[in-house]
Amino acid sequence: MELEQIEGLMQKSDQELLLQWYDEELKETVGGSAEDLVGVMGDLRQSFLNWSQQVGLSDLLCKRWGYREKKKILVPAHLALSLCEYLVGIQGYHVPATTAVIIVLWAGDELCDGT
User: Fold this and answer.
1) Is residue 63 in some structural domain?
2) Are 77 and 24 in contact, with CB atoms under 8 Å apart?
3) Which among 7, 64, 76, 106 has the fewest CB atoms less than 10 Å away?
4) How far apart are the two ends of the chain, measured CA to CA in Å?
5) What's the Cα-to-Cα distance from 15 to each of 33, 87, 106, 114, rounded to whole Å?
6) How many CA atoms lie within 13 A of 58 on its CB side?
């Protein structure tokens, strides 16, 4: 993963990022994209948060990786790149760049509340 790719993702809207995450996760999980599957995607923000809870992302992000501390010292693009590199090493995280950018732009604080 390169910083330029992270910076490009950070320019996308929340909805664009969530759609990209959803599509990439579906491709890795079931072998098809959102366009290939029939059905309504629903609230993607809530889907992301539900998925995060299901895979234990809050514990990994907040307790083990130290998201809040790193957020204080790294600019957003470097925080996302560092998080992406961390997620690459964890089995089960198929779309680390998109996931990392979503976390840095809006989900990180919500995921770390109460931890």
Assistant:
1) yes
2) no
3) 64
4) 28
5) 16, 22, 12, 26
6) 14
- pLDDT over 50 at 38, yes or no: no
Task: Read off the pLDDT of residues 60-86 as tens digits, 9 standing for 90 and up.
Answer: 999 999 999 999 999 999 999 999 988
**Secondary structure (DSSP) of 67-115:** HHHHHHHS-HHHHHHHHHHHHHTSTT-S-HHHHHHHIIIIIHHHHHTT-
Domain that holds residue 47: 3-30+41-112
Q: Which residue has the tokens 């907040």?
A: 62
Q: What is the pTM of this model?
A: 0.71
DSSP state of 2: -
Note whether residue 35 is domain-resident. no
Nearest residue to 48 (alpha-carbon basis) of 23, 13, 12: 23
12: three-class secondary structure by DSSP: coil
Distance, in Å, from the CA atom of 41 to the CA atom of 22, rounded to the nearest integer, reads 9
**How many domains are contained in the chain?**
1
Spatial distance between the Cα atoms of 25 and 32, rounded to a whole number of angstroms: 9
